[in-house]
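Troubleshooting: if your tokenizer reports a length mismatch, compare your output against this known-good record of 361 residues.
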Amino acid sequence: MSKLYNNIIRPLLFRLSPETAHEIGIEFMKLGLASWAVPAGDAADFGDIRRFGLEFKSPLGMAAGFDKNGVVVNQLGALGFGFVEVGTVTFEPQKGNEKPRLFRLPGDKALINRLGFNNDGTARVVERLKSIKRNTVVGINIGRNKDVPNEEAVENYLKSFDLAVEAADYVAVNISSPNTPGLRELQKAENLEELLSALQKRNKELSDKPLLVKIAPDVTEGEIEAIVDICMRLEISGIIATNTTVGRDGLLTGKELIDKIGAGGLSGKPLQKLSDEVISKIYKYSGGQMPIIGVGGVFSADDVFEKIAAGACLVQAYTGFIYGGPSFAADINSGLAKILENQGFSKFDEAVGSANPKSKI
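Known-good structure output:
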């Protein structure tokens, strides 16, 4: 199935603009036209994977950004994703930045985006999710509206959170997109503590749903240590590592084209090692006690295993799915099951942090 996608379907889609191809892909998924790619037979069995009170059929999830408005969560679940993170959503609907705002770097197996949280608004997305019977775990990723200054960010996030908890299995707080001016300032210790304290307090009052925070790969080791400390003290359920990078080091794509594309977050294969390093540091500073969802540069089962061995207890992908096609999740699930068996792990959790055994408590 992957050969058909790689040889025929992807070349056709890649002749279109990235955002147009994405919209067509979403429409095809709505119609159930991607299910042909799932191999027949039993799905990979990973046993009992429980994270922050939720049960996952597969450790591989779809990262935020693909299904911004929660329109194909069941279709993604049917393709083999063990969870889907919807969003990023904002309290007020947003059109996002001016087009073009999504770019492919095929030679690097990467994307650059400056979409700018284009979404239908939290209320509409939540109502949509409440109206369907879901077949997979669904997280809702919330962000700050572009026209809201950081001084008013806490209230803006709280408004989204109040709505999101009605439909989310977990809520992820996006403070790390490079495409909303000033947003990454919220990762600074004093700002982060204020925001997460307010959200966690409201969470305890409303629902006590798992609350996670998504951080950038472009953080220093000292910043990672501070973020972990805050999250541990506030009993945040997990850290998602990482968002896209603003770096452009080591790309095969020519500098002239990169300069022409301009600003935006880089995702895909060039992000892999950077995100793995952040995962390892979070695992180290939390003593293996902070659940980590690893994301960045996942294209194969080996990539997933590397993140798990570094300390991730769940993994997400997005760009790899764009390049890999509808059989992506099923292929990774079957490949990962074989890797775990070959490595001698009797259960999935034994592999988590196996490359960092000294960090375990």
